[in-house]
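Sequence in, structure out.
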Amino acid sequence: MNTPDQSPAKSYALSDVRHDQAGFESLVRLYASLKAARFANLEIDMSRVGWFDADMCAPFGAVLYRTGSHVNKVSLVHLQPQVETILSKNGFLSHYGRMPARDKYGTTIPYQRFDAKDDRFFASYVEAKFVQRTELPRMSAGLVKRFRESVFEIFSNAVIHSQSTLGIFSCGQFFPKRNRLDFSVADLGIGIRRNVKEHTSLDLPAHEAIAWATSERNTTKRGPIPGGLGLKLLAEFITLNRGRMQIVSDAGYWSLENGHSHTALLSAPFPGTVVNVEINTADRRSYALTSEVKETDIF
């Protein structure tokens, strides 16, 4: 069996990873440096990381898992204390030889990796760790059900579309002072651009492929299950809630904020797809499906 060699470790620096386009840039630049490595000892130098938004552990974990799958040994070194605390509370560092820390205030949505067949485990995780959180805006029973289904469809899309054999990664974080609840799901599949090309023959740049896939009636899913509806409902909710939604796939970046979408090309590709949502927890309004609202309710 081949194992990583015993030569001195090669070091790769990472900068701050925030829940934004710049944070994804940090991760794709890191992956660009790591992707050719085979049978190597690799150190991720975290000394320059002064802040790490915890939900970004999902794409970070995906990058490191892909790197490790090429028979590399990956270590995280020189973590600043505040970053080590964040990544210990959500269990991320327990995958890299450190003990988890107690989440005293219950602000984390734990880091998890799921196999494609783990749909029931993912559903239970989403229900217990995300959908039932008290910080979410008030929703009707019907909307809660659809919201749950929408989040699960992100997992379903990763399984059906991505063809990933390396799993699906998820993590989240509540920021009380910022009134934010962030949740991310990442996979290591073929990406939206290739998927759109294979199913429609449209050869679009990565960011345009994401925009195409998020359009209301576009889907590459086959069979009786409609695709895209989960993202549509999430996008509508995020717009009303004044939150934010981001998707990264290949070298494409797409975001939705204040009802407006933005696309860009990243400097390097991400090895799969990431969907993350940012919910505004200062929102005190109640939400329901249009079909649930009776005429008498509006007078």
